[in-house]
């Protein structure tokens, strides 16, 4: 049985309470590790360590901070295979996905922000003969980074790397459901020579460790990715304390397929945007709207594609769909499948839990599921399911599909499939969505602003936006 520890003040330490929580492998349903059940006492120690480390870290030349981040990135690349296997075991995702997407992206996050900070310039405002204003961007101080279970190391490092690059010290908490790679990261930070206290990783539940991070008065900003309800709760605690907040929350993303698209490409990418990571990505396109004249050909090709998505042991190379992250999450997704039936949906594919044999007999597997015939305003088409369940709906006009696409409380990402450039721009601008992809999906350039509107969040991550979030601008005005 593995035993993970907290990473506080440069050391791997047990939780103050001495208590541990079980970490379950979703593919088997078996406990494979114990994780610290940390609480406010551990968070207080982490903040103390961060406070001690902050003066030296913020004064370190940007290039030197960058060198350390690039070193961590290199160590992640060196350990790619081990990290990918750990991620797959902890999360249930196919190991091939962890190897090609999750872990390389975690390495890129550190390499990108290690160098991006060196290109982060501040503004001057010159009034001829009157005054010169210049802006200095100071690190916010100690910041809290709280991440979810769906892309564990990918999203954990997406927050930590810019915070460190900006000169902040960090108290971070990975999801208690997928803590493994965050623990391995602490070992790599020690090996890289990151000064003690600069990054502290506290494991435990949201209610104990997470809440303590949000409530600690020494922590000046919170960067959070997770469920919209949790984000709302965090904002309720942090906003009255005047903490800076970056919230990346849920999505119910529309995928708009126009008749003039490249159908083969649209189908292939829609299969990915529907079912990658078992549909557990906030960017997945769970509502597919297809122009009526190509509805049938799209549907037939899409359903043929679904039959190729082998569900199986995440460790096996042939597996395209692994396990859902937990039994509770599987139950939640199954309850939406039941709801889809009640709301009058016609099941086109999947819809059932899968019971594998052998090693994975106790795992949380679900068939990729497709419905049609559901009203755009029904609960299944309005609420975030966060699993391998999508709906197909035919539309007649651009106006109609836009009103359906914009009809949810979310506004994270949207995809448009068309060869008409004018339409692509027009529809993109009319979508209430932080991110719009045209003829692609999850094409990422780490310099771009990342985040949503409406209940999908507050603020933006990525590139300069992240560096701005982790710094406070100070204006200095000199009379000329
Ligand atoms: N936007 C996204 O990408 C994600 C959305 N979700 C959605 O949220 C639903 C619930 O999933 P959960 O695992 O419960 O996600 P969650 O939002 O509860 O968990 C995300 C992180 O927040 C922490 N947390 C929970 N309560 C907290 C609190 N009071 N203070 C501080 N930190 C806290 C958790 O420990 C975890 O590290 C999912 O079914 C899915 O619909 C879940 C994960 C990611
Ligand atoms: O930054 C990305 O490329 C993806 C981010 C995905 C999420 O925030 C999510 O699924 O929660």
UniProtKB/TrEMBL annotation:
The active site is at 248. Residues 16-476 form the Aldehyde dehydrogenase domain. It comes from the Bacteria. Gene3D superfamilies: Aldehyde Dehydrogenase, Chain A, domain 1, Aldehyde Dehydrogenase, Chain A, domain 2. CDD domains: ALDH_F8_HMSADH. The keyword NAD applies. Keywords: NAD, Oxidoreductase. One of its GO terms (molecular function) is aldehyde dehydrogenase [NAD(P)+] activity. The keyword Lipid biosynthesis does not apply. Belongs to the aldehyde dehydrogenase family. PANTHER family: 2-AMINOMUCONIC SEMIALDEHYDE DEHYDROGENASE (PTHR43720). This is Aldehyde dehydrogenase. It comes from Hymenobacter wooponensis.
């Amino acid at each position: 049985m593995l035993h993970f520890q907290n990473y506080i003040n440069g050391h791997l330490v047990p939780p103050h309470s001495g208590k541990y929580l079980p970490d379950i492998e979703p593919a088997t349903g078996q406990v494979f590790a114990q994780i610290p059940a940390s609480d406010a006492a551990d968070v207080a120690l982490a903040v103390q360590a961060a406070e001690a480390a902050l003066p030296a870290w913020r004064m370190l030349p940007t290039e030197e901070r960058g060198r350390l981040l690039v070193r961590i990135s290199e160590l992640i690349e060196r350990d790619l295979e081990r990290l990918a296997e750990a991620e797959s075991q902890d999360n249930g995702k196919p190991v091939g996905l962890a190897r090609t997407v999750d872990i390389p992206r975690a390495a890129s996050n550190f390499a990108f922000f290690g160098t991006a900070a060196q290109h982060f310039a501040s503004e001057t405002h010159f009034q001829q003969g009157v005054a010169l204003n210049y802006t200095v961007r100071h690190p916010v101080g100690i910041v809290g980074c709280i991440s979810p279970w769906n892309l564990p190391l990918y999203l954990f490092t997406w927050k930590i790397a810019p915070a460190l690059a900006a000169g902040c010290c960090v108290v971070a908490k990975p999801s208690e459901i997928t803590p493994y790679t965050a623990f391995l990261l602490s070992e790599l930070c020690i090996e890289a020579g990151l000064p003690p206290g600069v990054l502290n990783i506290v494991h435990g539940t949201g209610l104990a460790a997470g809440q303590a991070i949000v409530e600690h008065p020494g922590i000046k900003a919170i960067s959070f990715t997770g469920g919209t309800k949790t984000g709302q709760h965090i904002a309720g605690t942090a906003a009255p304390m005047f903490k800076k907040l970056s919230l990346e929350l849920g999505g119910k993303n529309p995928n708009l397929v126009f008749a003039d698209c490249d159908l083969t490409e649209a189908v292939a990418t829609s299969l990915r945007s529907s079912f990658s990571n078992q549909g557990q990505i906030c960017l997945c396109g769970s509502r597919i709207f297809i122009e009526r004249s190509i509805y049938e050909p799209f549907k037939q090709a899409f359903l043929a594609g679904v039959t190729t998505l082998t569900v199986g042991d995440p460790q096996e190379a042939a597996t395209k769909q692994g396990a859902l992250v937990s039994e509770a999450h599987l139950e939640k997704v199954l309850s939406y499948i039941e709801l889809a039936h009640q709301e009058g949906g016609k099941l086109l594919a999947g819809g059932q839990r899968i019971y594998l044999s052998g090693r994975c007999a106790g795992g949380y597997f679900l068939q990729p599921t497709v419905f049609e015939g559901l009203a755009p305003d029904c609960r299944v088409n309005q609420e975030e399911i966060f699993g391998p369940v999508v709906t197909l709906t035919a539309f007649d006009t651009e106006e109609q599909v836009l009103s359906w696409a914009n009809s949810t409380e979310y506004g994270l990402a949207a995809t448009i499939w068309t060869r008409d450039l004018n339409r692509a721009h027009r529809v993109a601008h009319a979508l209430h969505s932080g991110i719009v992809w045209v003829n692609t999906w999850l094409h990422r350039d780490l310099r771009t602003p990342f985040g949503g509107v409406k209940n999908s969040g507050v603020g933006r991550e990525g590139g300069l936006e992240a560096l701005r979030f982790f710094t406070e601008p100070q204006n200095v005005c000199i009379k000329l």
